[in-house]
Amino acid sequence: MNESPSLANLLKEERRFTPPAELAARANVTATAYEQAENDRLGFWATQARRLTWGTEPTETLDWSNPPFAKWFADGKLNVAYNCVDRHVEAGLGDRVAIHFEGEPGDTRTITYADLQREVSQAANALTELGVTAGDRVAIYLPMIPETIVAMLACARIGAPHSVVFGGFSADALATRIEDADARVVITADGGFRKGNPSALKPAVDEALTRPGTERVRHVLVVRRTGQPDVEWHEERDLWWHEVVDRQPEQHTPQDFDAEHPLFILYTSGTTGKPKGILHTTAGYLTQVAYTHHAVFDLKPESDVFWCTADVGWVTGHSYIVYGPLANGATEVLYEGTPDSPHKGRWWEIVEKYGVTLLYTAPTAIRACMKWGDEIPAKFDLTSLRILGSVGEPINPEAWVWYRHHIGGDRTPVVDTWWQTETGGIMISPLPGVTNAKPGSAQVPLPGISATVVDDEGQAVPDGGGGYLVLTDPWPAMLRTIWGDDERFRSTYWSRFEGSYFAGDGAKKDEDGDVWLLGRVDDVMLVSGHNISTTEVESALVAHPKVAEAAVVGATDPETTQAICAFVILRGAVTEAEGLTEELRTHVAKQLGPIAKPKRILPVAELPKTRSGKIMRRLLRDVAENRALGDVSTLTDTSVMDLIQAKLPGAD
Ligand code: 6R9
After folding, report:
1. Least enclosed by CB within 10 Å: which of 11, 55, 99, 547?
2. Does residue 391's CB lie within 6 angstroms of at least one atom of ligand 1?
3. Which sign, positive or negative, has the C-alpha torsion 557, 562, 563, 567?
């Protein structure tokens, strides 16, 4: 990308939404936080660290003497599970609901903080009995059930870093992750429920453990969730969770760990090479996830009901289902299944049932709901909602406005939160009681976070310019390294721009200095000498009333270097009438200018996505360039690609 011109500024979005006066008046965080952090960034984070209960208070904030290896609060000690559970019980909040669990088949459990304390203590005792000690890695391969949270907190309690692997990943993906982390115990379940059926998990573990490199796994702890018959059993190795955990004492004394003790490893697939084990540590991580959850969602723990719909196997689940909300003593919903099972209103039914006030989801889910039709959420009482969040991809302005209107009843601020597995917590986001929101923009770095947009030479671009998003100062929840590969950590994130963290995302700054994320740099297209972001063309397509979702890629083209090729999902009742693709091409040209007019538009039924809902443009590029498909192992549903390829001959 070295000599290519900066991203063109194509999209014009003029809509603005001010914070509701009442919310602004009672907001946890006001505009002064920016000033405080600006004046004394480290002092600001030292203050935030006081949200936690420490065994030994830290006297130093940041040690950056050996960049890019940061140490935060290095001489402090604490226990993460104590902070997420026990201290709330000690404060007299044992009866507060921590988790409203809603299983896909409709079974429910209500777990208070006192219940959670007992369960986490028992699980910690069980792991200790199995020989797990501080520093040992534990792989967790579970559905979205309370035991997943309990298992993670139990690991944290005894200082055993966990590595959660998506329940949807294959035996191969699981084996690679077990091997790389050198895990000693795997926690799994017989299965989970998905789209109305039990779906087995244990067979993938059995298969993974036949692969070389996984021999050091001593035990597999199996939660009984579906009750499927004929679970294969290895007598020496396998143990039922209920047999081992339920008989344990309900007390467990948490031990304090160093602030920089490893908390978890989470693998990100990346586009090439073997998955990167992103390492997060104890106190800096917990400080930032607790602070951001408090600030961005304006959490009032005594009255709010928070619901993050992410899978626990994604970083969003780690930070905003487990560690952030529980450190803050929140009440939250945990839902096992998919949004459309058994019907397309399931999520809204859950919001109504539990009186959810704060909802955090991904653009892909919002666009799916747009596709299913406005009448579905309209059937439910969603008036409890007061703040809506978005994460995972740029949210197209049209989807943002739909979310605010159809889900938020035009009352709720929408917070578009930019961050990564690597950043650990939210980095760029509006504050719901402060920021005048712009649909489609994550807008401003949070207090205490330093981010900017630079050009190819690493110079900050002026307002109105485009380039690459970088983080210019270390932050508490930053990854500490790639597990076992310091050199890859350095070269991946810290070598492109001297002294700054390169996030890998294209971005622009508008005239007010607000940041707009424009997708992964690898996805940026080069068309007749202009860099064009896939995000902007996708947003223009989604702004057309007939389009629910769009994925845009640049396909090699002899005349223009790359040609814009768009895959679109049409809204509910719209059919593929003649002239539709032409209408859409013209619409994009009108919105963004002729340079952005797609050469080809292909209506499809589904798009290839990862488990966290990100569109895998790389596979669409393979299709558009008539190549064999690359690695599909992190795709949710591989049949999607067959459907798309089957449509190709009739394209254009
Ligand atoms: C939390 C998470 C990170 C990548 C990131 C960027 C994209 C996430 C976004 C967003 C625009 C947002 N991304 N949030 N892009 N606006 N609000 O998603 O972590 O799975 O590691 O992905 O996701 O491209 O670099 P992760």
Report:
1. 55
2. yes
3. positive
